[in-house]
From TrEMBL:
Protein encoded by which gene: LOC110782445
Localization, UniProt: Secreted
Binding sites annotated in the UniProt record for substrate: P160
Chief subcellular location: secreted
Keyword match Disulfide bond: yes
Domain Plant heme peroxidase family profile: 24-321
EC identifiers of the protein: 1.11.1.7
Family affiliation: Belongs to the peroxidase family. Ascorbate peroxidase subfamily. Belongs to the peroxidase family. Classical plant (class III) peroxidase subfamily.
Name under which the protein is recorded: Peroxidase
Transition state stabilizer (site feature) positions: R61
Species of origin: Spinacia oleracea
CDD domains: secretory_peroxidase
Binding-site list for Ca(2+) 1: D66, V69, G71, D73, S75, E87
Length: 321
């Protein structure tokens, strides 16, 4: 869930009208029409993750970025055209990767069950699978989403930026029907993956007129990040920092790092510094099983935001039919 710098435009969110209610999905939606759907997606994800260990973090982030913009309609998968710049080419999504994994799963599903399984459902199943194969919880993915036909890069301005304060985070999640517990639980997705310097470098260089670095960070961690990102600009394409000490393993280490002042993003420490979210962070740091239960529940809730039940099932996830 590592996002690039964006602005929140609440009026636009409200105008979409897709975040105020939930759809009625079903874990057994494909039992009759494509009973092998879960297996095909699972095997595709597992094989891709063996080939590229970065796949789990990238797929989890893809799901979050899809659902948070226009709802879970696979609009993040649509390619730009000469007439339209799509979501995947918006500033926060330039670093979203692993679209080929979804393409692979879709191609296999089209052979097994033509024109049946939506791209939106594939992304939802894939997000669950990457959590499970990296040691995290399992849950029944509700299905029945249809694929959207609209994807605009400008809409990605609504993704939460890595420098928001706790009140801004709470409000933007609430706009999508997600509460404070969901905010903290879903932020735990930062246990997987890596962030480029651009998402946090402002915390360690000229943070304010008073502080060179963000005072909410541990001194040791600030020095580490400064060494990895020596300037505000031109840090190199691969420069950055893993998001916790076990970045390939889904666990509760992220919360322990935040408590220690070692959260990579400003949002991480902002939540710990706020009395509304701190107790939840502390409870998840102490009890991994509790975190797993709440994360699974929040992922189901997120997966039901803005669901399109009357759209289409794309034949190719990169373009509308």
């Amino acid at each position: 869930m590592a996002a690039q710098a964006t602005r929140i435009v609440f009026l636009v969110l409200l105008s979409f009208g897709v975040f105020s209610c939930y759809a009625a999905l079903d874990a057994h939606y494909y039992d009759q029409t494509c009973p092998q759907a879960e297996f095909i997606v699972s095997q595709t994800i597992r094989n891709a993750s063996i080939f590229d260990p970065k796949v789990p973090a990238r797929i989890l982030r893809m799901f979050f970025h899809d659902c948070f913009v226009r709802g879970c309609d696979a609009s993040i998968l649509l390619d730009s055209t000469p007439e339209n710049k799509a979501e995947k080419d918006g500033p926060p999504n330039i670093s979203v990767r692993a679209f080929y994994v979804i393409d692979d799963a879709k191609a296999k599903l089209e052979k097994a069950c033509p024109h049946t399984v939506s791209c939106a459902d594939i992304v939802a199943m894939a997000a669950r699978n990457v959590v499970t194969i990296t040691g995290g919880p399992n849950w029944n993915v509700l299905k029945g989403r249809k694929d959207g036909r609209v994807s605009k890069a400008s809409d990605t301005a609504n993704l939460p930026a890595p420098f928001l304060n706790a009140s801004q985070l709470i409000q933007t999640f609430a706009t999508r029907g997600l509460d404070i517990k969901d905010l903290v639980a879903l932020s735990g997705g930062h246990t997987l993956g890596f962030s480029h310097c651009s998402s946090f470098v402002a915390r360690v260089h000229n943070f304010s007129t008073i502080h060179e670095t963000d005072p909410s960070m541990s001194t040791e961690f600030a020095s580490l990040l400064k060494n990895k990102c020596p300037s505000l600009n031109n840090n190199g394409d691969n420069a950055g920092q893993v998001l916790d000490t076990t970045a390939a393993q889904f666990d509760n280490d992220y919360y322990k790092q935040v408590i220690a002042g070692k959260g990579v993003f400003g949002t991480d420490q902002a939540m710990y510094n706020d009395q509304r979210t701190r107790p939840i962070i502390e409870s998840f740091a102490k009890d991994q099983n509790l975190f797993f239960r709440e994360f699974a529940a929040s992922m189901i809730k997120l997966g039901n935001v803005g669901v399109n039940e009357v759209g289409e099932v794309r034949l190719n996830c990169r373009r509308a039919n």
